[in-house]
TrEMBL record:
This is Hypoxanthine phosphoribosyltransferase. The lineage of its organism: Bacteria, Bacillati, Bacillota, Clostridia, Candidatus Avichristensenella. GO terms for biological process: GMP salvage; guanine salvage; hypoxanthine metabolic process; IMP salvage; purine ribonucleoside salvage. Belongs to the purine/pyrimidine phosphoribosyltransferase family. One of its GO terms (molecular function) is magnesium ion binding. Pathway: Purine metabolism; GMP biosynthesis via salvage pathway; GMP from guanine: step 1/1; Purine metabolism; IMP biosynthesis via salvage pathway; IMP from hypoxanthine: step 1/1. Purine salvage pathway enzyme that catalyzes the transfer of the ribosyl-5-phosphate group from 5-phospho-alpha-D-ribose 1-diphosphate (PRPP) to the N9 position of the 6-oxopurines hypoxanthine and guanine to form the corresponding ribonucleotides IMP (inosine 5'-monophosphate) and GMP (guanosine 5'-monophosphate), with the release of PPi.
């Protein structure tokens, strides 16, 4: 596992916002809540690629239920730091979700545009219920009303990377989450 003190990847960070230990503890707590709430239900966990992949893989292992997994890839950001509001499906679910209880697992909710599109899109396919679990939430930046059902951490309005979150496809492999130095994306 990368060491924050030694890895050159960490030099571009202004500071570490959430450590791998904090993330792990919170995932265990959310896992207990999900295990309780989805008891006896047909649960499908949907990973929103690529950013949610590390969170997804840790999160599903904290849910003690016979769930299924599926993956979707959408574009909403490109390599810029602001949402365009335009959502395109790059990879769709492999199986239909009629009558299933769907849990979308996402990395971060910012404007809310991506998730409100996804919620409408998946509900229209006949899911029995649709819930959202996000690791991070920036409630101060919302452009549409959207409240995640499960949230790891509410954070300030700063551009963060690590634990799946990228800038220009880099930093996804940092085990911790940090605030990127502004000069990295303004230069
Ligand atoms: P929204 O549609 O809610 O504005 O944006 C959601 C998507 O924007 C996230 O899935 C993520 O890809 C990207 N995003 C929003 N804020 C950040 C951030 O601070 N860091 C990174 N790396 N991506 C972000």
């Amino acid at each position: 596992m990368l060491n924050a003190a030694q890895s050159p990847l960490y030099r571009d960070l202004e500071r570490i916002l959430l450590t791998r230990e904090q993330i792990r503890r919170r995932i265990d707590e959310i896992g207990e809540a999900l295990t309780r709430d989805f008891q006896g239900k047909d649960l499908v966990c949907v990973c929103i690629l690529k950013g949610a992949a590390p969170f997804f893989s840790d999160m599903i292992r904290a849910i003690d239920l016979p769930l299924r997994v599926d993956f979707m890839s959408i574009s909403s950001y490109g390599s810029a730091t602001k949402s365009s509001g335009v959502v395109r499906i790059l990879k769709d679910l492999d199986r239909d979700i009629v009558g299933q209880h769907v849990l979308i697992i996402e990395d971060i909710v910012d404007s809310g545009l991506t998730l409100s599109f996804l919620k409408q899109n998946l509900l229209a396919r006949g899911a029995a219920s649709l819930s959202v679990c996000t690791l991070l939430d920036k409630p101060g930046r919302r452009k549409v009303a959207l409240t995640p059902d499960y949230c790891g951490f509410e954070i300030e309005d700063a551009f963060v990377v690590g634990y799946g979150l990228d800038y220009a496809e880099r930093y996804r492999n940092l085990p911790d989450i940090g605030v990127l130095k502004p000069e990295v994306y303004t230069s």
